[in-house]
Amino acid sequence: MGLAFRQIHPVFVGEVSGVDITGPLSRDEVAAIEAGMDRYAVLVFHDQMLTDEEQMAFSRNFGALEDARGGNITKPEDKRLPVGMNDVSNLGKDGQPLDRASRVRLFNLGNMLWHSDSSFRAIPAKYSLLSARLVNPVGGNTEFADMRAAYDDLDADTKALIEDLVCEHSLMYSRGSLGMLDYSEEERAMFRPVRQRLVRTHPVTGRRSLYLSSHAGAIVGMPMPEARILLRELTEHATQPKFVYIHRWRPWDLVIWDNRQMMHRVRRYDERQPRDMRRTTVAGEEATTLQV
């Protein structure tokens, strides 16, 4: 049986079968997966026992890997995974769960907020690919919200209001909402806000979508309280159950999502137990502010 897709949510999300992504893929297989991403925006692959090197090789089929620097506060000497891999586990370099008071752990709790990966970069990410190496026994589901369907469901007046709005995104906004307000000068420089359009157009399908994230904390030309109320209202709209898929992880699942069309968040889990999740990120190609 060849590569096939089965839609597993009424609005989006495709489950993929008939392909082994641990080895090289044909050009036709890569093209089919990209077409699946354009249609479903989230793809689920089961039983893919990837090494880090194989995951990075598979990810490069879809573009260059994003430089992970500037996306966390983990010092280089404390990193657990090789260059090219993003560690979204609860583990330290020793392989044990991080201490409850660990600053890295507290920073990483921001992943439980609705967000789009790397929206805090001037050129935000294209795809994220998350591999479940060790699944936590309690909680830890990942939820995905379809920003295309959410945009389509807006009334005409709201669409007109937000059409040309530009937001400022920063990790200091998302972590600040959790009470993390103290940063070194180096971190403040690394996390300085970048500008992103609030409405994006997909480069292949031409479909419009909201571009929301917990990293968005301001709208250019709008008073801060007014901007945050609007962003909160839009996020509440976009994360209604009808737009959300809940992924319940199995060991060796790999899930790919298109950050240009999705928001996601992880749910709480028993952090006394290990959860080993490894992400590769395919870099984006241009700033959203260049979009016409």
What does this structure look like?
By secondary structure, the chain is α+β, with helices and mostly antiparallel strands. It has one domain (4-290): Clavaminate synthase-like (Double-stranded beta-helix). It contains eight helices and 15 strands. It has helices at 27-40, 52-59, 103-108, 147-152, 156-162, 171-176, 185-190, 224-238, and strands spanning 4-7, 14-17, 42-45, 86-87, 127-134, 142-146, 166-169, 194-197, 199-201, 208-210, 216-219, 244-247, 254-258, 262-266, 276-281. It is globular, with a radius of gyration of 18 Å. The mean pLDDT is 96.
Q: Describe the strand arrangement of the main beta sheet, using strand numbers.
A: 1-2-3-13-5-15-4
Can you count the helices?
8
Distance between the termini: 42 Å
Strand content: 15-25%
**Overall 3D form:** globular
- The top level CATH class name: Alpha Beta
What is the helix/strand order? EEHEHEHEEHHEHHEEEEHEEEE
Q: Could you describe the largest sheet, including whether it forms a barrel?
A: 7 strands, mixed
Structural class category: alpha+beta
Going by CATH, the architecture would be 4-Layer Sandwich
CATH topology: Double-stranded beta-helix
- Rounded mean pLDDT score: 96
Low-confidence stretches: none
What is the alpha-carbon Rg in Å? 18 Å
> How many distinct folded domains?
1
Q: What is the share of helical residues?
A: 10-25%
